[in-house]
Design a protein that fits this description.
disordered N terminus, four-stranded antiparallel β-sheet, alpha+beta, globular
Length: 401
């Protein structure tokens, strides 16, 4: 008994409705040359002179409330995979809309605490990327965090667990628990470009001016500054990336793609422009391009760009390459992507439905429906009912003598 065509048609309709809205536009609040939360971009060993191991709570305040006059308060611990404290001090970063800001160092036992929006917010040392450490404290004055904030630890050579702050309310427990650091396998792709260190002084100056213009929402000035930087130094991959972001924000996708490709030509191990390219391909439903580009990112560095694995599954599902789609979806689940993006369960469920595995499909569709982030619950529920019906029919057929 094969799953009927109506299941596949319905699955396709829901797929379009659910997956495409996940496409993110380039940030308008500031540039970022960093990767997906969990990256080791801007890693330090906590050696900045004069920096406290932790940022204390406001004087006289107890540690139960999560909001003080300066903003939300958090504390927790960082540990290695065996549960021990890290061998060095570790930077705690808050990442909002892709922009990372260093908030505290751990102490010798791995503990940390910080309060959002205080003047003690750490200034990045020379190893922290200036573009990614920008203005990540938006909303801090009111004690509320932006809707897309995460917390992570940053230590070179390790991948951090990510704690989502998006669903936290002011009355929630400020203890974020233990953030575990996992040894990072050797990867070829990087979240920063090696060519930046070779940029001439004038090119670096133009690039920095461009970053400041973006922060102040002066897109015209930023575009001119980034263009100047690339003219002075054509191998300035980071400048090509930021120029592409400006074009993309203005919906000039042809020039955006060209800029991202120039960034890749300048530094083929710089992963960020690949990420922008595959997101454009998803937005435009160019699934073959999306599959090829995400496959490249997965080979270069899937740890700092885990969403590439999810979108690889989506692209291969759309192309009808079901084995590849299933493999990537299961890999995304193993990487913990579903904690931030439960649509992985849906993609795997639809893939298994198309592979005539009604039991497996129903299991993952049910799991997806347990999430509070389901975009089109009625359609997914109908799809699940159809898959369950087909599964029951298959069991009944097999039971016949």
């Amino acid at each position: 008994m094969r799953i009927s065509r109506i299941s596949v048609i319905l699955a396709g309709a829901v797929l379009a409705a659910i997956l495409l809205p996940a496409q993110a536009n380039p940030p308008k609040t500031g540039p970022s040359t960093g990767g997906t939360p969990g990256s080791t971009l801007g890693s330090t060993t906590g050696s900045t002179p004069g920096m406290p191991a932790t940022i204390p709570a406001a004087p006289g305040a107890n540690t139960n409330p999560t909001v003080y006059a300066g903003g939300a308060y958090f504390f927790g611990r960082v540990a290695m995979q065996d549960g021990s404290a890290p061998p060095v001090l570790v930077v705690i970063e808050r990442v909002c809309s892709g922009v990372a800001r260093a908030q505290a160092y751990t102490n010798s036992s791995g503990s940390f605490s910080f309060q959002v929006g205080l003047t003690q917010d750490m200034l990045p040392d020379s190893t922290v990327d200036r573009a990614s450490s920008g203005t990540g404290s938006q909303g801090a004055k009111s004690g509320n965090l932006p809707n897309t904030c995460d917390l992570r630890a940053s230590l070179a050579g390790y991948r951090s667990d990510v704690v989502s702050l998006s669903s936290r309310r002011n009355v929630d427990d400020p203890n974020v628990g233990t953030i575990t650091l996992h040894p990072l396998q050797k990867v070829q792709g990087l979240t920063t470009s090696a060519t930046s260190a070779l940029a001439p002084k004038d090119a670096r100056k133009a690039f920095d001016k461009g970053l400041e213009a973006v922060k102040k929402s002066r897109a015209d000035d930023a575009q001119m500054d980034f263009m100047k930087a690339t003219e002075l130094y054509p191998r300035y991959a980071a400048a090509w990336l930021e120029l592409g972001r400006i074009y993309e924000q203005r919906e000039d996708l042809f020039l955006a793609r060209n800029a991202y490709r120039r960034a890749i030509a300048a530094d083929s191990n710089f992963v960020n422009p690949y990420e922008r390219l595959y997101l454009l391909s998803v937005k435009e439903r160019k699934w073959a391009e999306a599959a090829a580009t995400t496959d490249r990112v997965m080979r270069l560095n899937p740890y700092d760009f885990p969403e590439s694995v999810y979108y690889n599954a989506v692209a291969n599902l759309e192309l009808g390459k079901l084995d590849a789609a299933e493999k990537s979806a299961r890999e995304a689940l193993a990487m913990g992507t579903a904690e931030r993006n439960p649509k992985v369960y849906y993609v795997l469920g639809v893939t298994l439905a198309n592979k005539q595995d009604a039991k497996g499909a129903a299991e993952y569709l049910r799991t997806y429906l347990q999430s509070d982030k389901v975009a089109d619950r009625d359609k997914v529920t109908r799809l699940l009912a159809e898959v369950e019906k087909q599964g029951a029919a298959t069991v009944a057929l097999k039971a016949k003598p």
